[in-house]
Amino acid sequence: MTTDLAVDVRGLRKSYGDHSVLDGVDLAVPAGTVTALLGPNGAGKTTTVGILSTLLRPDGGTVRVAGHDVVAQPEAVRAAIGVTGQVSAVDDLLTGTENLRIVASLHHLGRREARERADALLERFDLVAAAGKPVSTWSGGMRRRLDLAMTLVGSPSVVFLDEPTTGLDPRSRRALWGEVRALVAGGTTILLTTQYLEEADRLADAVAVLDGGRVVAQGSPAELKSAHQAGSLDDVFLRLTDPSTLSTAEQSTEEVA
Amino acid sequence: MTAVAVAPAGRPLADTLTMLRRNLLRAVRYPGLTGFTVGIPVVLMLLFVYVFGGALGAGVAPGVTAGAQGRAAYLDYITPAIVLFAVVGAAQSVAITAAMDATSGIMARFKTMAIAPGSVLGGPVLGTVVQGLVAVVAVLGLAVALGLRPAAGAGGWLAVAGLAALVTFALSWLCVAMGLAARSVETASNTPMLLTALPFLGSGFVPVETMPAGVRWFAEHQPFTPVIETTRSLLAGTGLDTSTTVQALAWTVAIGAAGYAWSRSLYRRERR
Ligand SMILES: Nc1ncnc2c1ncn2[C@@H]1O[C@H](COP(=O)(O)OP(=O)(O)O)[C@@H](O)[C@H]1O
Ligand SMILES: [Mg+2]
């Protein structure tokens, strides 16, 4: 079953004006696995996620998600995916419960089902205590968990997470890793972007390194390390990415570390 | 991979009602904005009736003397303009809502979901119509409390409310577009301010005949004047002037259609 790809990207191109961001990206994510998309700041990770989630239009290439073409069948893609963007997408004025119930209604769950689904997700993400308070009063980690919970309301088969753990404390980060593992164990496919190479190493079945508009390496963390005779993904990353962008990548990794 | 039941492009009615629910919840959670939309026209009405009314009232109707008689005549005269003011104020607030949703990432979330695309902006617009009607009822209630005794029957009152709802709906689409076009929430709250000036540059507060030629031409041809005049006739219970009523409706439909088309194209635009 070589064709069972949840994400299948070939020759993807995208530019903003005459600034070419993606210049022939190939990326394959087998169903039921986790792939981490790495790359220095500005490499085009968010742009790639935007195209995969039908927010942005590709300029060239073919992009299929859950078996559907993102340009020809965006509705079918949307019905299959869940997205947690880099920018938090929760409604600050509403409570956690209200946020989840609204999203449940948008998935056309009945009143009672919506209620049950919201309660179950609050429980699962350890948000019960604060559920009735406006989200504006919540901590960053709690908001991120709610963000993910809202993404999962519709039980998506493919989930995109754009830097889901950036800015989280170690405990929240680990909790989120646990969630990702549980989702994959349940058959969900996940593509996440991250600045933390350790995160990719621990969590991902496969890693794809994006640089200069292309995927310059894709494989399991172990494969990449041995292919580049590197002791860590850090070294692989440093060897593969364009030295001109290294300073920013290094800076940002240090800043958040 | 689990087979996903492919949903149709959302359910327009159900999705719009869900989005309306979200916006009404937001209005309840953030009563400041609603308070503003009711408070400003109320203050304006008190100011115009009690401070300016005594003097200005003598100029709006023949045979009226300054003082108490002037105030009563002026209350009569400006009520339609204050109603429109309430409508404009409500519509302005939806520009802020739209800008907040666009910049916060929640609109991006909605765009990645299999829902009816029109509901994402349609919900806030309908929520604004509800808020506008609340403000209009408050203004009319105050006017009656201050002594307004309109000749309008039940049908006339309903027509006043219906016209106000229609104008709020149309202006809201325009303001949604202004909110989406704005780069920040601050800009979004400023751009529609221009609309606030329009009732003054029309027949809302003084008869257009008293204005110099250029201003008068503008006042006679701008969209709010026929709306104010139609409301005035409805409240007074005098018959409607066909040409004025048609102009009022035509402007409203044109503004709504243009605002809707502009909003839709901005919504479809790629945005970070
Ligand atoms: N809407 C846009 N208009 C112009 N340039 C953009 C836009 N979005 C992204 N870019 C540029 O595209 C490049 C890739 O951005 P992004 O996908 O956010 O990278 P990453 O997520 O890997 O940090 C950056 O140089 C960024 O400045
Ligand atoms: Mg990014």
From TrEMBL, chain A:
Its main location: membrane. GO terms for biological process: response to antibiotic. GO terms for molecular function: ATP binding; ATP hydrolysis activity. Residues 7-237 form the ABC transporter domain. GO terms for cellular component: plasma membrane. Keywords: Antibiotic resistance, ATP-binding, Cell membrane, Membrane, Nucleotide-binding, Translocase, Transport. It holds the Pfam family ABC_tran. It is found in: Cell membrane. It is a peripheral membrane protein. This is ABC transporter ATP-binding protein. It comes from the Bacteria.
Automatic annotation (TrEMBL), chain B:
The chain crosses the membrane at residues 30-57, 77-99, 120-148, 154-180, 192-208, 248-267. It is found in: Cell membrane; Membrane. GO terms for molecular function: ABC-type transporter activity. InterPro entries: ABC2_TM, ABC2_TM_bact-type, ABC_2_transport, Nod_factor_ABC_transporter. Residues 32-270 form the ABC transmembrane type-2 domain. It is a multi-pass membrane protein. Keywords: Antibiotic resistance, Cell membrane, Membrane, Transmembrane, Transmembrane helix, Transport. GO terms for cellular component: ATP-binding cassette (ABC) transporter complex. Its main location: membrane. GO terms for biological process: response to antibiotic. It comes from the Bacteria. It holds the Pfam family ABC2_membrane. Belongs to the ABC-2 integral membrane protein family. This is Transport permease protein. It comes from Xylanimonas oleitrophica.
